[in-house]
Specification:
about 425 residues; alpha/beta; Aspartate Aminotransferase, domain 1; Aspartate Aminotransferase, domain 2; seven-stranded mixed β-sheet; 16 helices; 14 strands; about 15% strand; binds pyridoxal-5'-phosphate
Length: about 425
């Protein structure tokens, strides 16, 4: 027998093995200064393309004042206790009602964190005789939620409706034998590549199969649809999403999340979401803060318009300059390049040190080996000048990548 920690010490995991050369720079970097289009990284001014503050709310004086006022009035603790016991307030209820209304559903329920919340929602929605069918590219929180399921689960190829259909056939046979139901899970926007989930086509399959649809719309909420209600509104099928989920961690620039659905379903979830029933209630700072932000989202469409002006300028500029930005149909802007992980590191270092551009870098195992994904998140705080500078810098680093500069610079870099 070996000591439990032997394996952990020997094998740090696919990302952990890069820690000694990556930590503090490529992973766990410290961005300083007010959250905005330009922040400081290691003392240098950088154009920041890596914060999900889509609508630019995080640093607006009236938003910060609302947070500060809630902190002055309630402190960071109130209310104490779980919602069911002693942590419920009128403001929690008001926020739920406003979120239900905004997301075009009968009822909503607040979650302390999106990650744990959606895991519990998946856990609560299915029993062992039910079958889950989910997009293979779903976010880690969905994968972890599916891990809690005691019954069968099938994945379908990313955004591939034929593959979904095949899996629904398998799932239907099994569900009939077991007298179970089927839960299909997709995302409104896939956060790495920016593709919207094919919700309209998925919903079409309801004519042929009996299933319920859960959509994680973390990146669609506030950014897509006429009113900002998300990918379902954008695709005209919000009513056919049976359980809608979004987090406050992106467009609402806060912490917390919510589920919305028919009242009967929310009433059930309220009493069965384990990570909410047995955890402290969302503090008032975040509840009052989310009310303020939601109000701004609803009444200031110019925020979303400005966001999209920047998204369009950046995405069109990249395409015109011959960059591969995949099939994004949202604000998330991926730029695909070919190279190894060490080359990616040298390239990103060049971008940050010599061009003042800070964006996230995504590599294997999140995407296939040999690909580098630079992920840019435009926000309403960016300017067309930021876009211009970024396009120039990207053209330069592509030249250097293709001519082998980063290969030479990274020749000695090895993982632990
Ligand atoms: C698609 C998606 N779902 C869920 C989450 C988790 O939300 P939270 O940050 O509120 O825990 C995220 C957060 O990054 C996300 O991108």
């Amino acid at each position: 027998m070996r000591d439990l920690f032997d394996r952990i010490i020997e094998n740090k995991g696919p990302l952990g093995k890069w820690a000694s050369i990556a930590e503090g720079y490529f992973v766990f970097p410290k961005l300083e200064g007010p959250i905005s289009n330009r922040m400081k990284f290691q003392g240098k001014d950088v154009i920041t393309w890596s914060v999900n503050d889509y609508l630019g709310l995080a640093n607006l004086p009236e938003v910060i004042e609302e947070d500060a006022e809630a902190a002055r009035t309630y402190g960071a603790a109130y209310p104490m206790g779980a919602r069911m016991m002693s942590g419920h307030t009128d403001y929690h209820e008001q926020l739920q009602n406003e979120l239900a209304d905004f997301s075009q559903k009968e009822a909503a329920y607040l979650l302390n964190f999106g990650y744990q919340g959606i895991m519990s929602a998946i856990d609560a929605l299915v029993s062992k005789d039910d079958i889950i069918v989910y997009d293979v590219d779903c976010h880690a929180c969905i994968i972890d939620g599916v891990r809690l399921h005691m019954g069968k689960r099938f994945t379908f190829k990313h955004n591939d409706i034929e593959s979904l259909e095949k899996n629904l056939e398998r799932a239907t046979k099994l569900a009939e034998q077991q007298n179970g139901g089927i839960l299909v899970i997709s995302e409104g926007v896939f956060g790495m590549r920016g593709e919207q989930g094919k919700l309209k086509e998925i919903v079409e399959l309801k004519k042929k199969f009996n299933f319920r649809l859960l959509v994680d719309d973390a990146h669609g909420f506030g950014t897509l649809g006429k009113t900002g209600a998300g990918a379902g509104e954008e695709q005209g099928i919000q009513d056919d999403i049976d359980v809608y989920f979004a987090t406050f961690a992106k467009s609402l620039a806060g912490i917390g999340a919510f589920l919305s659905a028919d009242k009967e379903i929310i009433d059930y979830l309220k009493y069965n979401l384990r990570s909410q029933m047995f955890a402290k209630s969302l503090p008032m700072i975040y509840v009052k803060g989310a009310l303020k932000r939601l109000h701004m989202l609803r009444t200031q469409p110019e925020l979303k318009n400005k966001l999209w002006e920047n998204v369009n300028a950046l995405q069109n500029g990249l395409k015109e300059n011959g960059f591969d930005i995949g099939n994004t149909s949202s604000c998330v802007t991926p730029v695909y390049l070919n190279g190894t992980i060490p080359e990616a590191m040298a390239l990103v270092k060049d971008l940050r040190e010599n061009y003042g551009i800070f964006c996230s870098i995504v590599v294997y195992p999140v995407i296939p080996k040999g690909l580098i994904l630079l992920r840019l998140i435009p926000t309403a705080t960016h300017t067309l000048q930021d876009v211009e500078e970024t396009l120039v810098a990207f053209s330069k680093i592509r030249e250097r990548l293709e001519s082998g500069v980063y290969k030479r610079l990274s020749a000695s870099v090895k993982a632990d």
